[in-house]
Amino acid sequence: MKSEKVLTIGIDIDGTVTSPSSIVPLMNESFGRNLRYEDCFEYNLANVYNITDEEFAIWLDQYGERLYDEAPVHGTADQILRLWHQKHKLVYISAREYRHLDVTLNWFSRYEIPYHEVDLIGSHDKLSSARKWDVDLFLEDRLENALQLSDALEIPVFLFDTPYNQGTLPERIHRVHTWEEVNSMMQSLFPKASYSLRG
């Protein structure tokens, strides 16, 4: 662990930097449903909306650009990431496809969210990318990813609390509810590596 040096922080985008509820209104509009974010009890929204995986893939192919463009920032993610950028290497590792790089970077620019690397891998298996960037810590909303990364890399993972990632967590995975909580926990785990929001 590079406790005396700058941290390399791996960060998921959707549901972590963007609001985890942002996909629901668009899916409701598309499929004529009136579900709430709280109804999304599992990560696979095809099951939640009672459609096939293929139908969801077709939908995401059609609406992905709009979804990524319109997603709101998750709480104070933008403020805290600007603080972290001064001291740490921020590497965004996302299951988004590479063809969505432009809309992703434009969104980052619009909200003044800083980055060092943006790795759109087109897959939920983020382990090889996290290894490639040698991350010290990961921020995620998908439970399966958090379990895999914390176990294989033996690193802390901050898991943003959602209806679809409930369950008992192993010691290295820390459930968090806000970005302020993440920043506070950063100070506990890496005392020399984080900033206070109050400067």
From TrEMBL:
Active site, UniProt feature: 12, 14
Membrane is among the record's keywords: no
GO MF, any single term: 5'-nucleotidase activity
Entry keyword set: Hydrolase
Pfam family, one: NT5C
BP term (GO), one: deoxyribonucleotide catabolic process
Protein origin, superkingdom: Bacteria
Entry EC no(s): 3.1.3.-
InterPro entries in the record: 5'(3')-deoxyribonucleotidase (IPR010708), 5_3-deoxyribonucleotidase-like (IPR052419), HAD-like_sf (IPR036412), HAD_sf (IPR023214), Nucleotidase_putative (IPR009206)
Family (UniProt): Belongs to the 5'(3')-deoxyribonucleotidase family.
Protein name: Nucleotidase
Organism from which the protein derives: Brevibacillus invocatus
Lineage of the species this protein comes from: Bacteria, Bacillati, Bacillota, Bacilli, Bacillales
